Here is the input.
Amino acid sequence: MPRYVRFATDEGPRYGVLEQTEVAVISPHPFAAHSPTGERVPVQGLVLLAPVIPSKIVCVGRNYRDHAAELGGEVPDEPLFFLKPSSSVIGPGDPIRLPVDLSSEVHHEAELAVVIGALLQRVAPEQALAGILGYTAANDVTARDLQRREDQWFRGKGFDTFCPLGPAIATDLDPGDLRIRCSVDGEVRQDGSTADLVWNVAELVSEISQVTTLLPSDVILTGTPAGVGPIVAGQKVRVEVEGVGVLENPVVDRAVDAMPVS
Ligand code: ZN
Here is the structure.
């Protein structure tokens, strides 16, 4: 089953299927009927992009008991959903830019990300997995100090660059027991398994689809295991999801000056 990647070319982003040392280019993209173009490009030297630009990113908080406990809370009776803006998405190797003028405590959160492949409205858990294209790795970067002061987590979760995704969309994965690890400059911070999800992938997709229509390319972040902690400029954060691959991003301070209008 294919592992899809999205990569930069002179003509703009394109999709392909990862095959050993090459990518077999497809057109137009994996969210519709598509076919190989016959072009093959070497993986070496390829600039991988976020594998999807979602129309929305739905996330769940406190979906691992050990992580809920480390934040000093219980697992809630119902899933605790929130949104991240699609403008927070970055790809493998792109810098996470810390908003140093607004937050002094930014954390990593390694997560399994679900990539939706169909239009889903009010589906039962038993139907949910059939509507998933595949899975990728995510870092639900969080300004913890702002999050603690907010009931709605728009600022704590929503800054530009706060949603690294990638490197590939793995389509042939059983999400029931995947190892999820995060390391910072080689030091292991998180090491969990999706077997410990309080609400599993099928239940999350079903619950979200009771509220909003899930569209092809939408992304669901399934929560983070214990071990979240601060990241600072100069570090490299590495999220690894079994069967997906490694998502690594450097951390920098964002410029404090306002950006020009472009
Ligand atoms: Zn999270």
In short: The chain has five helices and 20 strands. Residues 201-209 form the longest helix (9 residues). The chain has two domains: 3-48, 50-253. Residues 59, 109, 111, 140, 221, 223-224 surround zinc ion (CB under 6 Å).
